[in-house]
Amino acid sequence: MTVEQRSATDAVVAAIEDELARFPGTGGVFAKQLDTGEEIRVNADETTATASTIKVPILIELFRQIEAGALDLETRLPVTDTARTVGSGILRELSPGIELSIRDHATLMIVVSDNSSTNVLIDLLGIDRINQTMADYGFARTQLRERLDFPKIGPDARNLAVTTPAELAGIMEALAEGTILSDNSRAAILEIMGRQHHISLTPRYLPYYPHPDELGHPDNGLRIANKTGGWTGMRADMAFIEWPGVRYVVGIVTEGDPDRRFWAENAGDQIIGRVSRLIFDHFGGAALDTADGRPA
Questions:
Q1: Domain spans, the chain
Q2: How far apart (Å, rounded) are the C-alpha atoms in residues 153 and 139?
Q3: Which of 76, 114, 234, 282 has its CA at 20 to 30 Å from residue 12's CA atom?
Q4: Residue 142 backbone class (left: φ over 0; alpha: ψ -120 to 50; beta: rest)
């Protein structure tokens, strides 16, 4: 890295640290430009809660077992009374006992963060197996501790699962760079994550249009595959972001936010969006931010 590049990296790190210093809680960030290897680190190795970002490791273990021939994506599984739960998702609003394919449960778990589908898959796969696979892939600090049983979890999100910002980004790097699973499995996982409905964190302030063809919007080439997580007083996101000529991964977590509301203007949501924009601009994304959506 040249002196100029090092200076630019230091500048974006300083800007992120300034954002976090003005945030009423704590935060950690890890980003990596995959083609140059440049890293941006702020509290990147601190243990944090995951909230629903833990659903990506669950999805990875699902595809590992499918590759092993132990499961079939088209097998149908009911939402039992023990799997049905509150919080994010749509199945809580539908008929008890509804049956869906494993593929559909996996999709709902990611794109609308459905907690009931998540429990169906945790019960199918096993907590110990999910954690062992994460350790085997080099992410030993990412650990699922409890299914989505809110009375058991209590008020502390770390009772659900823990990770680090660096491991969240590292998991996305492994999917993007092909160091885990098969090509087909990784492509399927990233395709599901690319259909994410929750885009108020990492993509919040980016010129991102999830369905430009459907909406008749010019396509600026920006693609994002991400999974958010939210808990009272904490937020997280993990993402693979790319456009022609640039590919990077990011993991961002905030904790200790005194604003306990789940609303669009939550301070944790906003700061993740601002930090994401700093990283995006640093890697050259400002060129995509034009009035008509076309790259400059």
A1: 3-288
A2: 22
A3: 234
A4: beta
Fold of 3-288: Beta-lactamase (3.40.710)
> What is this structure's pTM?
0.95
Q: How many CB atoms lie within 10 A of CB 123?
A: 14
Assess contact for 8 and 278: CB atoms under 8 A: no
Cα–Cα distance for residue pair 129/73, rounded to 1 Å: 18
Tokens (6 digits) for 12: 């974006």
Q: Per DSSP, which regions of the chain are E strands? A: 26-33, 39-42, 48-49, 76-78, 99-101, 143-144, 161-163, 223-231, 234-243, 246-255
Within 8 A by CB and 6+ apart from 178, the residues are 186
Burial class (CB in 10 A: 0-12, 13-18, 19+), 155: exposed
Q: Exposed, middle or buried, 93 (CB in 10 Å: 0-12/13-18/19+)? A: exposed
208-245, pLDDT tens digit by residue?
988 888 878 889 999 999 999 999 999 999 999 999 99
Contact between 249 and 240 under an 8 Å Cβ cutoff? The reply is yes
Q: What are phi and psi of 204, to 5 degrees?
A: -50, -50
